[in-house]
Each structure stands twice: as C-alpha cells, then as structure tokens.
Design goal:
single chain; about 400 residues; alpha/beta; Rossmann fold; six-stranded parallel β-sheet; 24 strands; binds flavin mononucleotide; binds fe (ii) ion
C-alpha cells in the first residue's frame, strides 16, 4: 500500500513470477497489476489484480481501511489481470456495488456469476459522488477490449486510465514517477503497446481526443508507474505509437535453421552499424531462453513500432516461409502496420520461395518493397548477396 494523496491509495502488486504475459510476451522485468482505493465519505476500489495475489491484495486494502467497508468497485476493464479477484471482493464486502458499463455486465456474469442487482450501470460522462469528490466515467472501447472505460476524478485531476498508458516492468514501492522514470520505462512501454494494444491505433486515437479536454495531472494506469512528472512524454509516446509514427532506422528480424540466413542478418547489421544507421537485430528461431535478448517476437514488434524500415530474413522452408517468420508477418498484419519500407532476404537450396512470398505479403500490407534481390542459394557470401548495396537501400536517403 502506498498513499498517493489524502484520498487515493495505491493497492496494486508487482508480479515477478510470471514469465509470459498473456502466455505470449516475456516479462524480464516483471509487471505490476495496479489497483487503487479512494477514501472519502464513501470508499471506492478501482479494479482488482490477478489471481495469486489474494493475500497481498487484501492486506493492502486492510492497511488502508482496517475492517471498514467498501461501497463501490469500479470495473474499468474485464481482462482477468484486473478482474480476477472480483468474486473474492464481492464475497468479502456483501454491501459493495460494482460500477460498470452495459457492455461489462455479460462479462461480469460470465466470469464471476455476478447478479444484476449488485451492479450499478453507468453511461458515458455519468458521475457518481463519493462525498467530497466524484468519479466520472468515459467509454474507451477497444483500449483494449470492447467494454473498456476510464474513470476521471476531477477533484484530483486524476485519470484512472485502465491499460492505456500502461507498461511492462515492476514498479518501485513509491509508485509515482520521478524525473527519470519515463526514460527507464520507454522501451517496456513501447513493447507493451506493440504487443498488447498495437492493433487498436484508431480506438486509442479516439480515446486521446476524448480525454484531451481534461486537465490531467496524474495518470493511474493498470500497469506500471503512476505518471505525474512525465505526463507529456507518456501521452506523446502513446499518441505517436497509435498513429504508427516511426523514426529513421532498421528493424532486422530473422530466423535460421543452419546459420546461413543468420550470417546474412548479422552482416547486414554490421554494415548498418558502419554507416551509423540506427538498427535492432531480432532472432526469432528457437525459444526465448536461447536468444540473446530473450524477447523474440515481442522485442521484434517493439522495434517495428519504432523504426520506419523492416528487413526480414527467412530461409525457404517446404516451399514457404520459415514458420516463426511467417508468424511474425501475421503479427504485423494483425496490428495493421502500414507505411514501412521493407526488404526480404534468405537462403534456399533448390528453389527459393521465401523472399518472393515475404515481398508478396509486404506489398499486401502496403509496404514499400526496396528490392526483390535478397534471395541467395546455400551458404552466405557477399558475392551472392550484396550486403553493401542492401545496407544503402535500407539506410535510404530521406
Ligand atoms: C524442413 C526443410 C525444408 C526445406 N524446404 C526447402 C524448399 O522448399 N526449397 C529450398 O530451396 N530449400 C529448402 N530447404 C533448404 C533450406 O532452405 C536451406 O538449407 C537453407 O540454406 C537454410 O538456411 P539457414 O541456414 O538460414 O537455415 C529446406 C530445409 C529444411 C530443413
Ligand atoms: Fe487488457
Ligand atoms: Fe492489463
């Protein structure tokens, strides 16, 4: 528990045990599930936390209110990382009412068997008074589920934003950011956005527009630090990410069975390095623990959202694309990535197909194909695959 202001208390938890978020995304620095308790004439909880943290959550609550009652539980988002402990809270506080919107109701019933008489349904813009302060609700559909809403506490200029402005990474005991906290979390925030929310650029833009008239002084998201000092930087990063804005640089993503495509990828990285072009290199073969950064596709997506150019290396595999690279290409499609410069390369032995197929997928996404010349037979050599020429294309001359 940590007191944020006279009324607002942080009662979330750090998860340092889970290795994969949503069973997919590595958590080398952990993740926090944030929940808040607002103490006024009435007491309100904002969201709960993930299964497995029952004792810590209850102890955080009781250190705020002892045996006191809780009047409301605001459910901003039904994804189980925030809603798992709803049943437990309903049982422990029999007079408590859930505040949620109409789209949340069937999910409350389906996950927790909640009966309608325990739910107060709120509409867009509606306020509920807690005494000296009030909670106001704004719908933020698809950020990142359809029922998502955010909660505004005008008397404290505080936005409880759900997953919006969230980031991977465990947080300090004092959860409010300091001057350097944004820099510390920037990569994990980009990785969280690209992995989890990346498909929903337009809904995020709509939510940002809707919230732009609020004078926000504190953002209490469901994952990561509370933002106060760094609000401009955090909102600006989410704005750029949801507009698919990039900076100049190359995200090299490759998979390789016997090392030939891998050698080409590393030579390409070396050439970019020599030219002073920003780049990132991501190996998608094998499992997370066998890779240098342990991030695999999760890290690759992070850098796809950062750089304007993507170079993809895949050997030809049963007349097709090497499976982990095909999965990566599907992940780009699922996230509606557009406006990228694209270059494919890779080894084959008897009939190359991967480069042609990759370029085909990329042109369907509307990417600019920089060259169709990245395919080479058997072992890598600079005679078969002109690295310098490829690096000049990738560097571009914008
Ligand atoms: C399961 C498997 C399927 C393959 N399918 C093809 C193919 O359809 N066409 C082809 O030209 N080479 C095929 N190859 C050969 C690889 O493309 C070749 O070994 C290439 O050099 C591997 O690149 P790497 O060293 O980057 O893994 C296949 C290899 C394996 C192991
Ligand atoms: Fe979520
Ligand atoms: Fe979440």
């Amino acid at each position: 528990m940590y007191k944020i202001s006279e009324r607002i208390h942080y009662i979330g938890v750090n998860d340092e045990q889970k290795t994969l978020f949503e069973g997919l995304w590595p958590l080398p620095h952990g993740v926090s599930y944030n929940s808040y308790l607002i103490k006024d004439e009435k007491t309100a909880l904002i969201d709960t936390v993930e299964h497995g943290f029952e004792d810590e959550f209850i102890s955080n609550i009781t250190s705020c209110i002892n045996d006191g009652n809780i009047d409301y539980l605001v459910v901003n988002h039904m994804e189980p990382d925030h809603s798992s402990l709803i049943s437990m809270i309903l049982e422990r506080y029999p007079d408590l009412k859930i505040i949620a919107n109409a789209k949340t109701l069937p999910m409350l019933k389906g996950y927790h068997g909640v009966s309608e008489d325990r739910v107060k349904i709120v509409q867009e813009g509606e306020s509920v008074s807690l005494g000296s302060c009030s909670l106001q609700f704004f719908m933020a559909p698809m950020v990142h589920w359809p029922e998502t809403m955010v909660t505004w506490l005008p008397e404290e200029n505080t936005l409880f934003s759900g997953d919006a402005f969230g980031t991977f990474g465990k947080i300090a005991q004092d959860p409010t950011d300091k001057a350097g906290t944004f820099d510390e979390f920037e990569n994990e925030m980009r990785r969280y956005y690209s992995n989890i929310v990346g498909k929903y650029g337009n809904p995020v833009q709509s939510a940002l527009k809707k919230l732009s008239s609020l004078e926000i002084k504190r953002i209490c998201s469901t994952h990561g630090p509370i933002w106060a000092e760094n609000i401009d930087k955090v909102v600006s990063l989410y704005d750029r990410l949801s507009r698919y804005e990039t900076e100049k640089g190359v995200c090299i993503v490759y998979g390789s069975m016997y090392g030939n495509t891998a050698t080409a990828a590393k030579e390409l990285a070396k050439a970019l390095e020599n030219m002073g072009v920003p780049y990132a290199l991501h190996d998608l073969a094998g499992n997370d623990s066998s890779r240098e950064d342990g991030l695999g596709i999760s890290g690759a997506l992070m850098d796809v959202f950062k750089y304007d150019t993507i170079a993809v290396g895949s050997p030809t595999y049963n007349n097709g694309i090497f499976p982990p690279i095909e999965t990566f290409m599907k992940a780009l499609s699922a996230r509606l990535i557009k406006n990228r410069r694209f270059f494919a390369f890779g080894s084959y032995t008897w009939a190359g197909a991967s480069v042609r197929l990759l370029n085909g997928m990329a042109s369907e996404f509307g990417f600019e194909i920089l060259s169709d010349g990245g395919s080479f037979p058997q072992a890598f050599s600079k005679e078969k695959f002109n690295i310098e020429e490829a690096a000049v294309l990738l560097a571009g001359n914008k």
